[in-house]
Specification:
By secondary structure, this protein is an all-alpha fold. About 70% of the residues lie in helices and about 0% in strands. α3 runs antiparallel to α7, α4 runs parallel beside α7 and α5 (about 125-135) runs parallel beside α12.
Length: about 325
Amino acid sequence: MVVPMSTVTAARTAVPTDSRPRPALDWRLRFGALSLIWGFSFLLIKVGTEGYAPFQVTLGRLAFGTAVLAAAMAVRRERLPRGTRTWAHLTVAAFFLNALPFSLFAYSELTIPSTLAGICNATSPLWGMALSLVALSEDRPTRVRVAGLGLGFLGVLTVLGAWQGFHGLDATGTAMALLASLSYPIGWIYVRRTLAGSSHSNLSLTGAQLLLATLQLAVVTPLFTSLPGHFAITPLLAIAALGALGTGLAVLLQYGLVAEVGPTTAQMVTYFIPVIATAAGVAILGESLRWSTPVGAAIVLAGAALTQVRPKPKL
């Protein structure tokens, strides 16, 4: 899912890359696996909501993801972070980076195709740049990045069929998916301003973050849903895969990629997610695809890529 850079900025690694043992699996294969896992997440959400309420899908996803990270922490003998202030910041991060966007995507897919949800997810870098210009004083705009922002939102209008008056589009579901994408950069900026200098490891912080998000959903879910009359197996398996793979394993793969090839290359996975989500939705779920969807998605991705272009340092 959107390539959430979890609780700390991706550029911060506790150990220099060259001092880490080289993984047995080539980074390109892990990059491809991460793209597939996050790309198929939207299909899994759609299948999960066919048997369970959106909050239940999100709670299950977070619980399975937390279990994977807890196992990884046990293997590496890492502990949860300490300090009231750290946990307070992680509570906010858990809400904006996990509980809120995961729930919004689950609710959105009740009324919109998984393909559209995946493309809305690709707008996250656009929201991120727009917000960073206001919230991060060191993030200066350039003509190229501003052009990318404008191009990206033009792509969004193309996907939504603005020239047709958004005919046939569920406005509420689409708005939820776009709000979910907006939630990620809000969380990233908050984390960058509060936790970027933390001495705790990425795994420790993210494990705590997912635990807190799980607790948040554990409180909310019983208030808005009731226990299902029966437990549908296929949707339950989809939720388990969504959590264990799309939330737990994906985070571990991402950390490994960032450490080995750097955050810039690792973040390129963002541009493959909507392509895979669209292909999966059409091929497996039989969702319809208008010409404006892939064309608009390509424009969104081009704009998002331009927003990530940084000016070359002056010599």
